[in-house]
């Protein structure tokens, strides 16, 4: 028996409940997980799984884990992840890493500043451990001034970069400035970089910047958004030596470790990506994005909200149309996207007129969504 919400429900509690509705449908453009087809190189790795299994059984877990770290972090330019006695904890997913982080944080503070908007399971997990959330808007974060007194009043500042759903990336200079401020005010700096793989602007070495600043930091990395590995993925919970949180202890309350087979598979997918697969993925997402943008161009009151985004999701401003009405009209044709209210965790009405479309899908799926969305938008002018 499933406990997932029913499709008649327009007032669901969170984004994941909207995503459940789409899971069994071929035209699922709701969740941000990777669901495109395997490339020939990736299909070759899946064919190798029995050999990877045998190899993973033979080798010490520590060795399998270190090889997976190296391949993944270096693929994305994160060479300094091991410097200065940092710690890397492997979790089943980034949400599990997030839960461990949140429980740890709640032992040392009661408040956190969090980027706004962002994927709602981040505020939900933080609220779930009793933390008070203070919104940090993207404008002051990326281009303006962060309120020092507000920052001083919290125990941690949390930034999703690239952000979901906006795709905005914290530049190297802005990260250095924020890290310096956190060092000065003794505020923990935490990053969720789950969408890092899609945008080369997020491939500068964040760990070098964080280590150089002297701030206390935590980073949550995620292999699950990049490759269509049927939810076999790793969330890495990385922290500075002096982060001041009981991460390892709380990790041990929850899990012993992740599967060496999954670690080995992540290593092989990383190697494939380093050998050209990542550039192919970028081209693939850009192609799906161009197709969607091209088909929506010229529709009255329809606008691409994040023209510079390279993330595997696209936000569309629907003008006066209600996102829930458009979502429901698409759902009636068995096509699923996400209305954006819940991303705006502090002020949900800011998402009343926008829709998020997942782009890590087969191109034919994006084409079918595009066709349905065009007709819904033309009908609802
Ligand atoms: C920025 C971000 N972090 C974490 C997660 C959670 O990922 P998972 O469901 O694989 O745990 C998501 C989910 O989409 C996300 O968008």
TrEMBL record:
Keywords annotated in UniProt: Aminotransferase, Transferase
InterPro entries xrefs: Aminotransferase_I/II_large, Endura_MppP, PyrdxlP-dep_Trfase, PyrdxlP-dep_Trfase_major, PyrdxlP-dep_Trfase_small
All copies of domain Aminotransferase class I/classII large, residue ranges: 71-371
Signal peptide limits: none
Entry superkingdom: Bacteria
Any one GO molecular-function label of the UniProt entry: pyridoxal phosphate binding
Record Gene3D superfamilies: Aspartate Aminotransferase, domain 1, Type I PLP-dependent aspartate aminotransferase-like (Major domain)
SUPFAM superfamilies xrefs: PLP-dependent transferases
Protein name in UniProt: Class I and II aminotransferase
UniProt source species: Actinoalloteichus hymeniacidonis
